[in-house]
Amino acid sequence: MIRLRAALALVLFASACSESDGGRYPVRLSLALPGEAADLESPVSEALQAALRDSAIFAPDGADGSTVHGEATLTREAAEAPWILHVGMAVPDDLRSKFAVSAITSSASAGTDAFRPSSEALADAARRAITGLEAQCRLARGDASGLEVLLSSGEPSQILVALRYVSDREAREHASRLVPLLRSEDTRVRMAVLDVLGTVGTFDHAAAIVREVHRLDPGATREAYRALARLGGTDAVGFLRFAAANEDDPELRAEAERALSSALSGKPPSAAEVPRGVDLPKLARGHRQ
Prior knowledge:
A hairpin with an 8-residue loop joins strand 3 and strand 4 (84-90). The longest helix has 22 residues, at 119-140. By secondary structure, the protein is α/β, with parallel strands linked by helices. The protein has 10 helices and 5 strands; from the N terminus they run E-H-E-E-E-E-H-H-H-H-H-H-H-H-H. It has 2 domains: 25-143; 174-265, Alpha Horseshoe (Leucine-rich Repeat Variant), CATH 1.25.10. It has helices at 41-54, 119-140, 145-151, 156-169, 175-178, 187-200, 203-212, 218-231, 234-246, 250-265; strands at residues 25-32, 58-60, 68-75, 84-90, 103-109.
């Protein structure tokens, strides 16, 4: 089971003041770069300022309005891994009632050069990270176009926020849009999509999951069995019967048996029996919050 932890520890220097007209929010970002990236301070700063200038929702510090404070960091998981730009900021006061969190974050990969990201790669990462923050604010304002921006971003952190949004609202109208994400290269995304489809999907989505199961790793396969148990229907029950009889992995076979029993009885397993596969990041408040 994978537990998604916060991708960025924010240092927020002040609370954001209200922008009652829903206009652009001036943003002041501090940089927190690791020693190996200290010489990138100038290009990172320039990339972020350019992205803020081009933003329809945010603006560089110094523009009219009350300033929103936040932090940007550049990290990588290993010496040979690409750099990731993380940007976080306080939720503006006029949107706080719409969010379940006090700060929003967004991340974007800065190219594939593991040694030193180019200025172009940093500029692209800054633009995509700021776009992810814009999308979250649009969703909070009731503009559903922000959801498609997050889902099509290609950035796991942004996709996971979108999945939380769909799950919290039980937004069944978006279920079909999630199916292609079952082929995501990111394990967290695949597992989260299965979990959300198990909540908002239909018999048709159960059939889509069955078609993709052979591509999944063991962790995602377990989540697929759980999703099929919740969705039910002919395709789900038929596949779970097959899995319960033919699964080679003893743990997965037991999972398939439990899922089959649940699908046949119509009673979902208890939370204790089926812990959540992925803890999704919170975004805007849903009707259940």
